[in-house]
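Quick one, probably user error.
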């Protein structure tokens, strides 16, 4: 906790590791000592990136594993925030790994993973999604003169919302003002960049 190397979830118990640095490559995802290399050559979630060398931009390595008793993973996203030259806060979301053979559309948006939720039975299946996803991503819009932060968001496939479980268990009507399914997720502590 003191190092801020933590992540939070919306209730699921999936596992996430995230490292940022200037010398990572896509091949680093395959190293058997993922965490050891992450600490040696970069900083973990909650860490601070030092000023970049000329021509370098930060790269990130992420591993995400589903809750052993829970839903498969839909996607891994990296959320970048920065202060622009005018001092205004900006934010952009990047889909960096996802399950299945989906491709981003012309608008750059990734299609939904699908939904296996059976509302009447308050159940779902892991017929979609993936039990494990890994991502390598290098910031394509990095400006070494601007403060920035990067955090990881991991989304699970849709599962029944608690109100859907209650409707099944207690035999009550589903509420109409909330969705019947949700996508639980995890959020890592940011990795900070200060020029």
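Nope, works fine. Designed sequence:
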């Amino acid at each position: 906790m003191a190092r801020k190397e933590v992540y939070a979830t919306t209730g699921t118990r999936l596992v996430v590791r995230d490292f940022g640095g200037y010398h990572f490559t896509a091949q680093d995802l395959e190293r058997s000592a993922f965490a050891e290399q992450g600490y040696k050559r970069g900083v973990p979630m909650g860490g601070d990136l030092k000023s970049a060398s000329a021509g370098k931009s930060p790269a990130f390595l992420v591993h995400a594993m589903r809750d052993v008793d829970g839903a498969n993973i839909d996607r891994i996203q990296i959320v970048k925030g920065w202060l622009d030259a005018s001092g205004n806060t900006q934010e952009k979301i990047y889909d960096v790994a996802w399950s299945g053979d989906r491709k981003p559309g012309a608008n750059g948006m990734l299609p939904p993973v699908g939904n296996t939720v059976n509302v009447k039975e308050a159940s779902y299946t892991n017929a979609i999604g993936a039990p494990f996803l890994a991502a390598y991503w290098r910031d394509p819009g990095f400006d070494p003169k601007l403060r920035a932060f990067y955090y990881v968001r991991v989304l699970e496939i849709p599962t029944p919302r608690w109100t859907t479980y209650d409707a099944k268990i207690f035999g009550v009507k589903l509420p109409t003002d909330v969705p019947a399914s949700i996508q639980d997720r995890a959020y890592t502590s940011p990795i900070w960049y200060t020029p």
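The chain has a mean pLDDT of 94.
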